[in-house]
Amino acid sequence: MEKLEKLAPVMVSIFENKIHKHSKAIDILQVIDLIKSDPDLEIKTNILRFESNPKKKEELKGQLQAVTFSGLFDGQRKTEYLNTYSNFICLDLDDVSDIDQQFQKICEDEYTFASFISPSGTGIKVLIRTNNIPKDHLKVFNQMDAYYENVLQLKIDPSGKDLPRLTYLCSDPKIFVNKNAKVWDKTKMEFYSLVRANNKNFTFTEGSRNDYVFNLAVLCQRKSLQMEAVCDLMVNFFATNDFDAKEIEKAISSAFSGNYHTSGENANLNKGLNNWERAEIYLTEKFDFRLNIVSQKYEYKKKNEIEFIDLNENTIYREMQKENIGFSRDKLAALLGSDFVPLFDPFKDYFYSLLLDDKSDYDPIVDYIGNLAEFIPTRDPKRFVNHLRKMLVRCVACSTEEKVFNKQVFILVHDEQGSGKSSFCRWLVPPALSNYLAENIGTDKDSLITLATSFIINMDELSTLSRTELNSLKSVISKDKVNLRLPFAKRATTMWRRANFVGSTNKDEFLTDETGSVRWLCFELTGKIDFSYREKINIDHIYRQAIELYLKGFKYELNREEIEENERINVRHQEISLEYELISKYFYASTKVDGGDFMTSTDITIYINKEHSNYRLSKNQVGKALKYLGFKKESNYIGEFGYSKKGYYVKINTVF
């Protein structure tokens, strides 16, 4: 089980039984352990299998624990409540004849990650690991269906196509687990689907085998499969003594050398296609497209290129005209704005790729985040590493999950230039996400858009911001949604906030809001940051640990004690306003019983302005300062006027 022990946590939902509405998160490997050795599950399974009454048997089955192998769900077991896609699909084979032989065939297949006998004892469950996204779940299932039917000659239950489907657990001490199971390959996945499509029009029989292979190769070319991969698959699949690899490769080469989107001797292959279908075939053959849902930009690349770039619609239109594809600009825009272009989430792609990277030297036992914290000298190292860990997990959660909102701004404070604060904040953006770093945003429209299109916003040198700018920034930090208009869209769409705020300052006292600074998490450096963290710490390991913690249910939000502690610490960084200083100078908090004078905030403002005619205090700021200083606002009934006033009982300090 060496491979399994290093498998990144894959969390799914487990239910106590069929009618239980609330689920818990559990790692798939823990599910396998339950099936293999849980004594309670063994008892329930034996009772179920010995029951002969079909109705009673169904009732007993409903009492078994059940899991959603394809994902972890929040609350309801519906696709829209999917929290995390597991990249596993569970196939169900019911009423299998000669179950031992079929089970052996399944276990020998290279894609079988795990397989066990179903609760009834007459079926087989199969777990296969994939690399697809939730949107393609049904498509992948159908391709697996084609594979099982055409390769293994087995029929699977179509109910498995539903992403939230429950699978009942049962005891199987002999559960099969393949530590070297292959991830369902995209090329093979597409190929087996095309085999099924080709079978509708052609048969692989003597006298028609060349036509069969040729037309299957044409379908593969149109789906942009690589010719070398297609050759390997077809040779393994179709080669016989009298129909060898050379003959197969010759037919494939002929198919791949054709130019089927234009007129000519092979134009019959496009017979019956309309302009839209011809355009789709051409674009699929020549380019890869995707809609980056973070940057809100369409991206593309040519088939022989590696890097995606921003889509230039005019370039694509020009290419199509050169190839005599009769398609207008409006139609091209409509096509690119449809589901023809798949969605791409660079944040999820990055974080989940870390989990799937078996070649990495990542060690799950090592505390990479804790090691990183040791390079940052702070006044309270224990508090710093705790909040650094929580902040990094919040960054993962906020950037990948719509319902998560990172409320805090992570601030490094040190009174010297060149201490490494800004460099560290920028380093927190991994190279793979370098395009999603923003700096020093304001409150304009572009800044609001940045909230939905950035991973980290670095507020470099907060001390340069005025009181008004800093307080205005608070409203931006508090937003969890913004309105954006997608490319090719006619109206704005509400997008969720993905960005996380970090920052630095050389000024100890920079907080200006007397009503409270709960949003700010400040950490004072006691010296310069050790720059060697950039060579000794792998940022990918940091975020792999962070996403593993997130998927395990790590509590990344501040608890009540941490919030109160943070409020106390932020007092050290509070900028003392003129109103604060003058109220502290002239007034003491008092009560009616102690003979205090009742004064409204207006009365207090007028009094101080009389004493200092060169100052003009703001009534609003006086009210905030009184609250910050702990003066208690009370009501005082004015009998002669018949109404109450809001104010404070104070005593005036006359000793100056």
Question: What's the layout of helices and strands?
Answer:
Blueprint: H1 2-5, E1 11-15, E2 23-27, H2 28-37, H3 39-50, H4 54-62, E3 66-68, E4 71-73, E5 82-85, E6 88-93, H5 99-108, E7 112-117, E8 124-129, H6 137-150, E9 167-168, E10 176-177, H7 186-199, H8 209-222, H9 227-238, H10 245-256, H11 275-286, E11 287-292, E12 297-302, E13 309-310, H12 313-322, H13 329-336, E14 343-344, H14 346-355, H15 368-373, H16 381-400, E15 409-413, H17 421-427, E16 437-439, H18 445-453, E17 456-459, H19 467-477, E18 481-485, E19 492-496, E20 500-505, E21 520-524, H20 533-536, H21 539-551, H22 560-570, H23 578-586, E22 587-589, E23 597-599, H24 601-611, H25 619-628, E24 634-638, E25 643-652
Helix pairs in contact: 6-7, 7-8, 8-10, 9-10, 14-21, 16-21, 24-25
Please, could you describe this protein's structure?
Residues 1-6 and 259-272 have low confidence and may be disordered. The chain is of the alpha+beta class and 656 residues long. It contains 25 helices and 25 strands. It starts with a helix and ends with a strand. Strands 16-17-20-15-21 form a five-stranded parallel sheet. The protein has a four-stranded antiparallel sheet with strand order 2-1-3-9. It has a four-stranded antiparallel sheet with strand order 6-8-7-10, covered by helices on one side. The protein has four domains: 2-183, no CATH class; 190-336, no CATH class; 368-573, Rossmann fold; 578-652, Arc Repressor Mutant, subunit A (Orthogonal Bundle), CATH 1.10.10. Helix 6 crosses helix 7 (186-199), helix 7 crosses helix 8 and helix 14 crosses helix 21.
